[in-house]
What we know:
Elements: H1 10-16, H2 18-22, H3 37-40, H4 56-67, E1 71-72, H5 76-80, H6 84-96, E2 100-105, E3 114-119, H7 121-131
Antiparallel strand pairs: 1-3, 2-3
Helix pairs in contact: 4-6
Amino acid sequence: MKNQDGAVTDREADVSIKSLKAGNVVPAREFFDSYDIGKAGIAPTGGGSNPSQVIPIELKLLRAVVDHPMRRSSEYSKLAGISPNTLLKIRPGLVERGFIHENKQEAHNRGRAAILLEPLESAKQLVENLEE
């Protein structure tokens, strides 16, 4: 039932978000290129190094890491052309799935350790295969 102005009622909204809370939502891959994952809080899932499991925004980061290995993690948002928040959200998935390795570089004076990203063989092969 809609209000006179066409807005959804609170009850309708509660019913419609049940699938979101249950995790029954599968984002369409064709929207990942133009959708800001950092703002939406969407983190891709999956395992292995199958190219079909790497979304375009992850591929941007992988290309940057392969082309510029062992740089500070903070540098990759500019190198890959993605937002820092998006980088923070997708980096753990790429580490978990065996595409990149995080190396900690201890700070000499004070401050926190820098995280240097190293491409693993699966990332190098994926980027190489996609460029052919």
